[in-house]
């Protein structure tokens, strides 16, 4: 039986992260501070698009830094509800809004619709 090292090495001898199992990425993300988890997960997804980086971590601790991120988050959460998959809003454990000029009415409307 070939070793794990054989599976993650490409033909040219360089390491390919696509072959790593999702559990390894999950274990790495467990050690990321809560305040950085969303950004780190997104960075991994963008840097390694073919790798099985779990997306659940994107929704555990939501941090919004700009006003325009509120409707974008709502669209993503709405899409998951309408697609038949488990609602991503149920995954959210914490929500931080760092924007200085949020539209409070819009935020309350979205929060109410997902019972945040």
What's the topology here?
Elements: H1 4-8, H2 22-30, H3 34-47, E1 61-64, H4 69-82, E2 94-97, H5 104-114
Parallel strand pairs: 1-2
Helix pairs in contact: 4-5
Structure summary:
This protein has 116 residues and is mainly α.
Question: How does this model look, in words?
Answer:
The termini are far apart. Strands 1-2 form a two-stranded parallel ribbon. 46% of the residues lie in helices and 7% in strands. It has 116 residues and is mostly helical. It is globular. Strand 1, helix 4 and strand 2 form a beta-alpha-beta unit.
Key features of this structure:
mainly alpha, 2 strands, 7% strand, 116 residues
Q: What share of the residues does DSSP label as strand, in percent?
A: 5-15%
Supply Rg. Answer: 18 Å
What's the main sheet like? 2 strands, parallel
General form: globular
Please, how many helices?
5
Number of domains: 1
Distance between the termini: 48 Å
